């Protein structure tokens, strides 16, 4: 056998799609590719249909090969369609994913390409064509209006409008537009309460911190929050302020909770990774096999029952090509099981009992492994937290100190009353 003899017909109806459920009637879609697809563009419909019938006949059982008939046919010639020049793309022997990117590359700023052949991740699919359309639309829009700058923060707080205006002004001096809000620089002097509560770094840093205000938390008057030696104090005496604004202390508490949650979440991720590395994944519950004697019987007698049901329908209808529906076969199979002799049901009942015993055995082993794993995991978590838990950051401690001082001030105030 010489492979070259099949070169021109290798792609001739090499695949059929069964579309019967979508159409509602027996329907097949035959595909051609390669040289066979090119040759089909010049062949009449009746020859192409006959080739499809012959290919479909080879898929049928020997008893029905001679009875395969085509009631209706539609022939498409995508190869010569002026808008497609082919149905969808095929990857060559030496092609790589980069070839899809090359096809997707626009020409200048005026010609953009879309289609499944330009989608590297989903070529040859409808959703690949859709994804490429979104990408081409984005490229087109960018060529018209430029890159879209994302403001920071994306959604400012209601009482943070002043901070947003400050950044907009700063942005206008940098890029010539007041519509873009740059990301504020990171500084050790920043605090959720504003820069005036930053770490004392020696010397006067107010000139620096005035341009680094938080965009999400409003500035708090220095006298509104209790202080300690970790913070700058506006009063000459250095004594704590006498008034506490509880609405602004809520901001402090909210910022503290956020930092604490982030730290704990990060620790949990690390602990989870180390747990899997040491103990492996948690045991998965085993799948239970179906324990039904009728289901086992059905596997053995389905084909025999289907053939008998088809013959009965052909005799009743007078149509030699009539086929019994799936539900009709099931109904006949159920009747066959009910009429099956009891002594012949014994092997199926015993097989069902064996399956149930095996399911119970697997379940017992799973529960035993699960108890052991959970016990070892609990011990591991306890040891891990003692040895590897992250200490609260300096920012957390500062915020805790503010809240502690505020609570102390409130208690002192109540005692004086």
TrEMBL record:
Residues 374-408 have a biased composition (Basic and acidic residues). It comes from the Eukaryota. The lineage of its organism: Eukaryota, Fungi, Dikarya, Ascomycota, Saccharomycotina. Residues 161-180 have a biased composition (Polar residues). The keyword Oxidoreductase applies. GO terms for biological process: chromatin remodeling. GO terms for molecular function: chromatin binding; DNA binding; flavin adenine dinucleotide binding; oxidoreductase activity. GO terms for cellular component: nucleus. This is HMG box domain-containing protein. Residues 287-367 form the HMG box domain. InterPro entries: Amino_oxidase, FAD/NAD-bd_sf, Flavin_monoamine_oxidase, HMG_box_dom, HMG_box_dom_sf. Keywords: DNA-binding, Nucleus, Oxidoreductase. It comes from Sugiyamaella lignohabitans. Coiled coil: none annotated. Residues 161-247, 374-417 are annotated as: Disordered. Pfam families: Amino_oxidase. Residues 287-367 bind DNA. Belongs to the flavin monoamine oxidase family. The keyword Ribonucleoprotein does not apply.
């Amino acid at each position: 056998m010489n492979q070259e003899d099949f070169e021109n017909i290798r792609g001739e109806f090499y695949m059929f799609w069964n579309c019967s459920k979508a159409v509602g009637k027996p329907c097949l879609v035959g595909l051609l590719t390669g040289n066979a697809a090119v040759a089909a563009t010049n062949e009449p419909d009746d020859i192409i249909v006959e080739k499809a019938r012959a290919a479909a006949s080879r898929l049928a059982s020997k008893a029905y090969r001679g009875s395969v008939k085509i009631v209706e046919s539609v022939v498409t010639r995508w190869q010569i369609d002026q808008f497609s020049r082919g149905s969808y793309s095929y990857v060559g022997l030496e092609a790589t994913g980069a070839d899809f990117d090359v096809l997707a590359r626009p020409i200048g700023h005026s010609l953009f390409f879309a289609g499944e052949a330009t989608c590297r991740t989903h070529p040859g699919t409808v959703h690949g064509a859709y994804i490429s359309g979104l990408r081409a639309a984005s490229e087109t829009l960018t060529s018209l209006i430029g890159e879209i700058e994302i403001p920071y923060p994306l959604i400012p707080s209601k009482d943070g409008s002043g901070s947003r205006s400050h950044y907009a002004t700063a942005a206008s001096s940098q890029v010539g537009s007041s519509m873009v809000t740059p990301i504020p620089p990171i500084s050790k002097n920043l605090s959720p309460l504003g820069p005036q509560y930053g770490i004392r770094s020696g010397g006067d840093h107010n000139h620096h911190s005035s341009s680094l205000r938080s965009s999400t938390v409003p500035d708090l008057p220095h006298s509104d929050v209790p202080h300690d030696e970790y913070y700058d104090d506006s009063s000459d005496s250095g004594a704590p302020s006498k008034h506490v604004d509880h609405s602004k202390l809520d901001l402090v508490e909210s910022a503290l909770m956020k930092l604490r949650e982030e730290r704990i979440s990060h620790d949990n991720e690390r602990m989870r990774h180390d747990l899997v590395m040491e103990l492996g994944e948690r045991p998965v519950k085993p799948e239970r096999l179906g324990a039904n004697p009728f289901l086992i019987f059905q596997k053995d007698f389905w084909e025999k029952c289907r053939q008998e049901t088809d013959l009965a329908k052909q005799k009743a209808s007078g149509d030699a090509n009539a086929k019994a529906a799936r539900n009709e076969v099931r109904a006949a199979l159920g009747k066959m099981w009910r009429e099956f002799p009891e002594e012949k049901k014994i092997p199926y009942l015993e097989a069902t009992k064996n399956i149930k015993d095996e399911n119970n055995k697997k379940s017992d082993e799973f529960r035993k492994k699960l108890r052991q794993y959970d016990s070892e995991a609990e011990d591991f978590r306890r040891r891990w937290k003692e040895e590897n838990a992250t200490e609260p950051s300096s920012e957390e401690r500062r915020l805790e100190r503010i809240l502690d001082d505020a609570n102390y001030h409130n208690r002192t105030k109540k005692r004086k009353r």
